[in-house]
Amino acid sequence: MKVSYQDAGVDTERGQAAVRLMKKSVEATFDRHVLTGLGSFAGLFELPQGYSRPVLVSGTDGVGTKLLLLQRLGMMEHVGQDLVAMCVNDIICQGARPLFFLDYLATGKLEPVRVSEIVDSIARACLAVDCALIGGETAEMPGLYDEEEIDLAGFAVGIVDKDKIITPHSVREGDVLLGLPSSGFHSNGYSLIRKLFFELYPDRLADYAERLARPTVLYVKPVLAAMEAGAIKGIAHITGGGFFENIPRMLPEGLCFDIDTSSWPADPMFEEIVSLAGLDRTESFSTFNMGLGMVLAVAPGEVDQISRAIRQTGQAIYRIGRVVPGEVGSLR
Questions:
Q1: Helix or strand or coil: residue 237?
Q2: Of the candidates 164, 180, 200, which is a domain's last residue?
Q3: For strand 150-161 and strand 54-62, is the pairing parallel, antiparallel, or unpaired?
């Protein structure tokens, strides 16, 4: 008996149709440094000039179980921004300007329109941070995924001069911590959120749907503006693990954070969901970003000029605390 690849659940024609649909939006992200077109075996990118000792900085991430929530709500139009932001916000923490991005999309049944819409959203986010979407993979894997299931991962590469890499070594006691607000939960904590609204309080999901679906903020342009304005000593992207896991990653041994939690506007959504989950303060700040998606460490004398540069990009910023001696951060 003859059994074709299509009989096994993989239709290469659907894959080719998806590529045709996404081609225009992907190629809109290209600049003169992109040396290959869509469909090549590999993406080629010529390094830009102007760097004396260029270092490539890479990061990879996904959207996590927020995907399940977005699919349940039918609100996938901005999922690409979540994917791109989770990667480029990480590499900017080392001072790197994003250069290019690659995506990986896996599903049980490849629907060309749905796939192209997701890739379009990835391309829009890449354009927003001047990053080329130079390649990716769309995998149809029946048996590994249900037909409607989708999984996403991304990979970003950026560039920084070696003497401008941001590391913990320059952070000192007394440095000021500045916080950049989040749009909501970004792409972290959704396993707990799904537990709440899929199982315990399903009747309340509609009340929170729009806010839970908000995409992760792209912090690249505000942070690049800050680096032009002054010396950024440390940057922490507040993702899984919240404050207590991520802020210490930008600090040297022997120093920790002291943060005033009243120094930025409280977001009622966080307070409501923390209350529904019954989390205490330490648990909530170890699970969610609690309204701040990125934290910068700067010298006291640089606070005003750096804050001004960030605000000029349209991004709000708050003075939230300072670097102090110790091993475990404190909230007050």
A1: strand
A2: 164
A3: antiparallel
58 within 8 A of 156, measured Cβ to Cβ: yes
Cβ–Cβ under 8 Å, residues 96 and 57: yes
- Tell whether 212 and 104 lie within a shared domain: no
**For position 5, what pLDDT does the model report?**
76
Q: What is the pTM of this model?
A: 0.94
pLDDT value of residue 7: 62
Structural domain for 39, as ranges = 12-164
The CATH number of the domain holding residue 193 is 3.90.650.10
Give how many domains the chain has, as a whole number: 2
**Do 114 and 177 have their domain in common?**
no
Q: What is the CATH number of the domain that holds 143?
A: 3.30.1330.10
Question: What confidence tens digit (pLDDT) does each residue in 9-67 have?
Answer: 777 788 888 888 888 999 999 999 999 888 788 999 999 999 999 999 999 999 999 99
Residue spans of the chain under pLDDT 50: none
Helix or strand holding residue 86 (H, E): helix 79-91
276 in a domain, yes or no?
Answer: yes
Q: Please give the Cα distance from 180 to 295 (Å, whole number).
A: 6
Describe the strand order of the beta sheet including 54-62 as a list of residue ranges.
54-62, 150-161, 97-107, 132-140
Cβ pair 179, 223 in contact under 8 A = no
Q: By C-alpha distance, which of 100, 153, 106, 139 is closest to 123?
A: 100
Q: What is the pLDDT of residue 157?
A: 98
**288 token code pair:** 């969610």
Domain boundary (125, 142, 164) is at 164
pLDDT, tens digit, 9 for 90 and up, residues 74-108: 999 999 999 999 999 999 999 999 999 999 999 99
